[in-house]
Design goal:
By secondary structure, the chain is an alpha/beta fold. The chain contains ten helices and eight strands.
Length: 286
C-alpha cells in the first residue's frame, strides 16, 4: 500500500518508525516492543518502518522484528543502509527481504560505523543505492529528506539537489526528518516541487516527551526548535507527566495545522518504541 492511499476511507494516514532495542540479551525488551506495536496497530497504520544499523549492525534483531510484523499481517518497510557495505552484502540482504515478501524499502546512506574493520567503497550515497535496487529488484523504494537540510549539507539548496538525485534514480516517496516548525516544512516543499520533484513527501513527527531528547536531537540533526516549546519543556523538565502532555499537545497542533491549513493528510511518527504519546495524538486527531 502506498502512503497516498487512505486507511479505511479516513481523511488522514499514519505510519510509525520503530527500532530494535539495544542490549536485549533476554528478549524482554523486544517482547515489550511488540506490545507497543499492538497498541499502535489498532490505528490501522499504512506501515511500520524498522530501522537497520549501518554496516549491518542490528541485522538479526531488525529481521526478527520484520518477520514478526509480516507474520501478523502488518505492512513493513525495513530501513536499508549502504555505507561501508559491499555489493555482495547488499545482494544478500535484498534476497533475504525478497524471501520475506517485503515490498517496501527505505533506502538510506546511513552513518559510517565506528567499530567496523573494513569499509567497502561500493556505495557512498543513497542515490547509488536507490539506482542499484531499482535496476535489480521490484521493491517500492522510499528515501529520506530533510526540511532544513541534512546536517552535513552545505545548505538547503544543495541538499535538495541531493534529494532530487534519489528521486531521479527511482524513489517513489519520501519521509521527512522530524521538524517542529511547519513553515519550515512548507518552505521546503515549495522549493522541492519547483525542482520538478513530484513524489509524495510524508512529514516526520516526533512527540517530545523527554528533556534529554532535545540536546541529542539538536546535535544529530539540523532542526529549528520553537522558543515557546523549549521554555515549557525547560520549566517542566523534572515532571514526566507534564513533559508528556506538552509534547502531545504540541504534536497534535502541528498535525492539525498540516491537515487543516495545508491539506497534508499523511503523518510518519517517530515513536521511539513507545506508543503512549503517539496513541494520544492520533486519538486527538480523530
Amino acid at each position: 500500500m502506498s502512503l497516498n492511499e487512505t486507511n479505511n476511507n479516513k481523511n488522514f494516514n499514519f505510519s510509525f518508525e520503530i527500532f530494535p532495542p539495544k542490549d536485549d540479551i533476554t528478549g524482554e525488551k523486544t517482547e515489550n516492543l511488540y506490545k507497543e506495536i499492538d497498541v499502535l496497530n489498532k490505528h490501522n497504520p499504512t506501515l511500520f518502518s524498522v530501522t537497520f544499523g549501518a554496516g549491518g549492525s542490528n541485522k538479526d534483531l531488525s529481521f526478527g522484528i520484520v518477520k514478526h510484523l509480516i507474520n501478523n499481517n502488518i505492512e513493513v518497510m525495513p530501513h536499508f543502509t549502504c555505507i561501508c557495505t559491499s555489493t555482495s552484502q547488499i545482494n544478500e540482504r535484498l534476497e533475504e527481504l525478497k524471501k520475506l515478501n517485503v515490498k517496501n524499502i527505505l533506502a538510506l546512506r546511513g552513518d559510517e560505523p565506528k567499530d567496523i574493520t573494513v569499509c567497502y567503497p561500493d556505495f557512498r550515497y543513497a542515490n547509488q543505492l536507490v539506482k542499484y535496487i531499482k535496476q535489480n529488484t521490484n521493491f517500492n523504494i522510499s528515501v529520506a529528506c530533510y526540511p532544513e537540510g541534512h546536517i552535513e549539507a552545505e545548505n538547503l539548496d544543495k541538499d535538495i539537489i541531493n534529494f532530487k538525485h534519489k528521486v531521479d534514480e527511482g524513489a517513489v516517496q519520501a519521509f521527512s526528518q522530524m521538524f517542529f516548525d511547519n513553515s519550515k516544512f512548507m518552505f521546503f516543499l515549495d522549493k522541492v516541487y519547483k525542482t520538478g520533484i513530484n513524489i509524495p513527501i510524508i512529514p516526520g513527527i516526533l512527540p517530545v516527551t523527554s528533556y534529554k531528547q532535545i540536546n541529542k536531537m539538536l546535535s544529530l540533526a539540523r532542526v529549528t526548535f520553537p522558543k515557546n516549546l523549549m521554555e515549557k519543556l525547560e520549566k517542566y523538565q523534572n515532571d514526566k507527566y507534564a513533559m508528556s502532555q506538552i509534547g502531545i499537545e504540541f504534536a497534535t497542533k502541528q498535525c492539525l495545522e498540516l491537515l487543516e491549513k495545508y491539506g497534508i493528510n499523511n503523518f510518519h511518527f517517530y515513536t521511539l518504541n513507545k506508543s503512549f504519546a503517539v496513541d494520544e495524538i492520533i486519538k486527538n486527531l480523530k
